[in-house]
Amino acid sequence: MGNWRDQMDVSIANWRLPPVVPGVWRQPSLTEGMAILNTLCDAGHEGRISALVGLRVLVPRFLTDTILVEILLDTAGEGFALSVMFAMSADQVVHFDGTAAALDRLRAAGRVRIADDSDARAYLILHGNLVCGEAGPFLIVESKADAPSHISAPLIAAVLDRSLKPVVLKAVRANGAYLIEAVMCYDSTLFVVDLEVSPDGAVEMIDSEAIARGIPFRVHGFVSGFRVLHDPDSP
């Protein structure tokens, strides 16, 4: 990859793609970054990461001995942002492609450990960003800052203000699973949902109710293994 820092021209503070999970994302050191990129190349992903312009990593508490890696890619000024995402451990590289398969691989390897309701909330946000349906991700939305990009209009702002609320822990099951109430955005609809999160990362929707429909969100998600977000500053 040569000197990967010479290829980067986007500070992580200026990424248009919001993080897939809350936490302190950071730009790795030169040595750490080179090791990450070499590992990804050795795992067969050089073609996916060769156009990198940014690199950020996070060590989430709910993943054992595993880091999340996101690589921002050059889009040559087009009206969208593009990245590729991985989970990496000493013996495993998992590419997130918008399906449940990547998280299933982490769960099968025993990497997911949900220890409390804070972990359950963060994992649900990650799960909603990375596991997509035909119309895009199942986003957990707690405030207007979390909502997908949309046109600025008083009516939309009013709908979001009355609909959005923080994630709430409703119960802890006898088997250790967390019953969570949250507002979920899918396509152009907001739902209030009850979700059960098991300690090993299994997620099950228990109930859902649509509370607002027809909101003109800009659709984003995964395309051909890449994370894509329409640039709200472009038409």
Give a short overview.
This protein has 235 residues and is an alpha+beta fold. Helices cover 23% and strands 32% of the residues.
> Helix amount, in percent?
10-25%
Q: Report the span from N to C terminus.
A: 34 Å
C-alpha-based Rg, rounded? 18 Å
Shape estimate: globular
Describe the structure.
This is BFN domain-containing protein. The protein is of the alpha+beta class and 235 residues long. It has one domain (4-230). Helix content is 23%, strand content 32%. The protein has six helices and 13 strands. It has helices spanning 4-7, 30-42, 46-49, 101-108, 117-130, 154-163; strands at 52-58, 67-73, 80-89, 92-96, 132-133, 136-137, 139-140, 168-172, 178-186, 189-197, 203-212, 221-223, 226-230. Strands 1, 2, 3, 4, 12 and 13 form a six-stranded antiparallel sheet that branches. Strands 7, 8, 9, 10 and 11 form a five-stranded antiparallel sheet that branches. The chain has a two-stranded antiparallel sheet with strand order 5-6. A hairpin with a 2-residue loop joins strand 3 and strand 4 (92-96).
List the helices and strands and how they pair.
Layout: H1 4-7, H2 30-42, H3 46-49, E1 52-58, E2 67-73, E3 80-89, E4 92-96, H4 101-108, H5 117-130, E5 132-133, E6 136-137, E7 139-140, H6 154-163, E8 168-172, E9 178-186, E10 189-197, E11 203-212, E12 221-223, E13 226-230
Antiparallel strand pairs: 1-2, 2-3, 3-4, 3-13, 5-6, 7-9, 8-9, 9-10, 10-11, 12-13
Please name the defining characteristics of this protein.
6-stranded antiparallel β-sheet; single chain; 235 residues; 5-stranded antiparallel β-sheet; alpha+beta; 13 strands; BFN domain-containing protein; globular
